[in-house]
Amino acid sequence: MTSAPTTLWAARASTLYDPAYARRYRAHDDEFNDSEPCRRFAEWLQQVRATLPGPIDALDLGCGTGRYFWALTGVRDLVGIDASAAMLAEARRPFNADRIDAARLTLIEGDLFSHHFEDDRFDLVYSIGVLAEHVPFNAAIVARVSRWLRANGRFAFTTVHPQSPSIPNTLKRRIGRRIAALAPAAAAQPIRARLLGGGLYADETRITELLTARFAIEALSQFESEAHRHCWCVARKLPA
Length: 240
Prior knowledge:
single chain, alpha/beta, globular
């Protein structure tokens, strides 16, 4: 299933993640067991799954090569959406394919900011290494995920923390953090928005701000990978 990219982020991903990149990324999947962060992300996802009773329907938001499809058990319908056709081509032969027990697996080439899923479609929406990293984590995506989830469904995702060592600690960023910490909230807001890269980084405060109206946060902590300092979050959709 394909829908044309309608935002800058989707168009950029479909161009950047070309066949050569996708092949390299998929080759890295085969080294999964040598990567502690990958193992820990899989274990984390399995722990989230354990909080949901019975068979579930799940959405992998920005699924790439399907690196974590195998980590979920007891899935009726597993849907992976990604803007890159090349990455999805690799996802047709994902890592640990023989361990995927989903009754149905559907891959969608689409823009996560515009693709339509039915309301109350999923019990779990998860996203690893995508939100507040490759695309903005903002109110629009939170609202969309909330619509797609059933009541008491889980939203599990990672972000890049704005104080990750991977982000250059420039003089401007140091001054900005200092001003944002001391200034009144209204004056600090635009500075803080710039420190968050327009949504390409998200810390605990920003995650809480965006989720509180629609979700109850069940877990929110930091995690260091070889690439970034992350936040990882699990939130439960509040009943209407």
